[in-house]
Amino acid sequence: MARICCALLLSLLLLLHSPAACGAPPQPRGTLCRTKPTDLVFIIDSSRSVRPHEFEKIKVFVSRVIEALDVGPNATRVGIINYASAVRSELSLQGPQSKAALLQAVRRIQPLSTGTMTGLAIQFAISRAFSAAEGARGSAPNFKKVAIVVTDGRPQDGVQDVSARARAAGIEIFAIGVGRVDMGTLRQMASEPLDEHVDYVESYSVIEKLTHKFQEAFCVVSDLCATGDHDCEQVCVSTPGAYRCACRDGFSLNSDGKTCTACNGGLGSALDLVFLIDGSKSVRPENFELVKKFINQIVDSLEVSDKQAQVGLVQYSSSVRQEFPLGQFKSKKDIKAAVKKMSYMEKGTMTGQALKYLVDSSFSAINGARPGVPKVGIVFTDGRSQDYISDAAKKAKDSGFRMFAVGVGNAVEDELREIASEPVAEHYFYTADFRTISKIGKKLQMKICVEEDPCECKSIVKFQTKVEELINSLQQKLEAVAKRIEALENKII
């Protein structure tokens, strides 16, 4: 009987050591959401500024969006317009609508390689692509009409009036700009709200990263969590036609409805934090202002003082410039003011040189670093480094610094992973668009805190201790019983 009790108690201990014991199990993901029947037309720019290998990237993006749709004559129908100086219908809404046929049609598209008549292409969509003769179902109230325009330059004709006519005709327009596109043109084309209908990527090499957005845009039913975590830090919970974020046991949902709090010490714990910011020319002045807001967003979550958080800031391009060292400013207000005054360097991208500076100088005592206080570095970059980063990245982590890597646009994900601390998945972040870096800021606010007891399963820990004490007591009793049995056996013999 005693051995059975021991076995049961050991089983309890094994159960308590499992990850689910300190929190709710991950939410099961249901079936992928179904898309509302839509007449969808892609309007893709193949002007001479779009190189052949870049055009292939557009085709990959279009294919990925199609793969996520429920396509068919009674579901979503897909059409494709290819334009440059002239307009070519590559696929009409009444064409073959099986997924295989659509993907094959995409693979056959060839670039036109002439001018950029975007207005003409939108007019073609109104008069031809979305006409009943071409298979559009505009008269049926249950069917949406959607156009996705992909372009990389300034159009040679007007787009404002024709886009207004398209929207008035019930066509919802998404505008995707690449590289040196004119942002004003994108806003003239897109439907309201512009934040949801205008997207920008630095190059065609990262356009595929927008696929997830359009998968969500066309999703209307049931399990929205099946298409992604929607920036929920821990748990995404689906509700009919919507979703909400939740937290595991031992954590509470913050006021933003996305992130969770689990820190005893919180962001008020002692911390030396240095931002290493890419100021290269590819960032652009307007995006550099967004980077400064990103820095101040994180600063807002800190308790700044001599005994709590200290903040330093370093900017780099072809050279490295310390904006201010750790401890120079004693309040959030002063730190944020200094960040706002930071001027844009606008040159190259020497990330390796900047990492070396972080290791050798930023976290040194002469620059305000405190012995025994956790050191955190946040590296922000938008492109490939022009020098070697491996040695400096390794030295930073070997020195015990906790390194976060944040990449935007053309940032190379392999480099971000190399910079990031373990576990890498929790220490590197990427977004295609500078306008969405505030979402990364929210996640970083929680991750940089110094966690004293991240799980806080106090009752379980107490119970586990009690079980261990019982096992030790039972083992001692069993040993005593065994000795008595042995003694009795000796007397009988």
Overview of the molecule:
By secondary structure, the protein is α/β, with parallel strands linked by helices. Helices cover 37% and strands 19% of the residues. The protein is built from 15 helices and 16 strands. The strands form four sheets. Strands 3-2-1-4-5-6 form a six-stranded mixed β-sheet, with helices on both faces. A six-stranded mixed β-sheet has the order 13-12-11-14-15-16, sandwiched between helices. A two-stranded antiparallel sheet has the order 7-8. Helix 9 runs antiparallel to helix 10. The longest helix has 35 residues, at 458-492. Mean pLDDT is 79; it is low at 1-33, 263-268 and 450-464.
**How confident is the prediction overall: mean pLDDT?**
79
Q: How does the major sheet shape up?
A: 6 strands, mixed
What's the helix count? 15
Give the % helix.
25-40%
With strands numbered from the N-terminus, the spatial order across the biggest sheet is: 3-2-1-4-5-6
Q: Rg from C-alpha positions?
A: 29 Å
Q: Given the C-alpha coordinates, what overall shape results?
A: globular
Q: Tell me the strand percentage band.
A: 15-25%
